[in-house]
Amino acid sequence: MKTLLIKNSWVVNADKSFHADIRIREGIIEKIENEIIGRPGDQVIDAEGKWVIPGGIDPHVHLNLPTLASPSSDDFYTGSRAALAGGTTTLIDFVTPHRRESLLKALKSRKNEAKNCLTNLYFHMGITCMNESIADEMRHCVRDEGIFSFKTYLAYKESIGISYEELYKVMQIAAELDAIVAVHCEDGEQVSINQQRLKSEGRLSPGYHAISRPAELETRAVESVIKMVEATKCRVYIVHVSAGDSVNMIMKAQKKGLPVFAETCPHYLLFSDEVYKRPDEEVLRFIMSPPIRGEADRCRLWEGISDKIIDVISTDHCPFNLRGQKDIGIRDFTRIPNGTGSIENRLSLIFTYGVLQKRITPEHWVGLVSAAPARIFGMSARKGSIDEGKDADLIIWNPDYTREISAQAQLQRCDHTIYEGLTLQGWPDVVIRNGLII
Ligand code: URP
Ligand code: ZN
To answer: Which of 68, 160, 56, 71 is nearest to 113 (CA)?
Structure first.
């Protein structure tokens, strides 16, 4: 393997930024020094005027997610290709076993589906019911399969969701294994009650999706999970936080020293619930769970990021086409597949709306999209920063390049994007994964 030398880098890590040259050999960052003299045969890249950042880590994506409306529109190949183009070199997807399926059997078939993935890839193991044999399999996942995170849903009662009692047991076992539990916090019982009520009243248009899942159902679930953290001492990661009151709740828990981590996603930071006043066809695009919240929540999420209560910005990438997938539920919101996508644009969206709008520093940006997910999910010995000895997953970032998002030009596979027409600044010039220019 050839040696790669990046000259004149402005390295941006989550803790500091500095000028350096970087030598990469056999997939590893071998040397970082003020000046490294090239050797014959080295491949040299001049990064003058650009930034060099660690490859993005997106710890929450659903590629090829099976649903009643057919799988999410990006598979492991198209989704990972889009991720790489936008500067994400590592993904964490999910194994979602059926309720009576063995975790290890589901892991094997998920790995098979993911064979054509172009990024580094890890999995969270979904727990969709809890009993003694699942507990044994959880132990096996940690000890023999290198899986250190479990995903649970308090939402989706009728399919993959579990009860609070089951979650408590999952957290007890995870604590014993020093694993982390990611929780989708929405009170699924109450969501089902709301859905049935709206249905019986004939309120079925897409906008009622948001009415059926108000912010307090998220915050109530966050509160219960935090109580269980106090009792079990289990580390938890609250996925896609959307509500301001949830941020407040998480802040209090963190102040008490409880191991509660949190993520949000670009769509909760860029849109407000005004989107649900658009025509039904448009509203379909914004059907995700939890739904987009009010303006005050959106502002509180940005504050939660600035105050480092929210650790990570992931995408929850789970797109569905409008035609043939989302539109299945145009007359019954409960049938609309939930999810949206931004795997390709995450780094650039947060650079544009976070760094350039001075809400966060460049270092904090790197923390949110790479260093924090590496730390929380046990990868920081190898990933999440540009340091000697770490994996050579890095991005030469052009902070000046501007581009307009359009469904037509995007690599992620979907017939629309909620960010259509938005002009973003900042984009990868060169993407390097495991020392290879992708
Ligand atoms: O609407 C969403 N978020 N769809 C993806 C699955 C999930 O709930 O994370
Ligand atoms: Zn998700």
So the answer is: 71
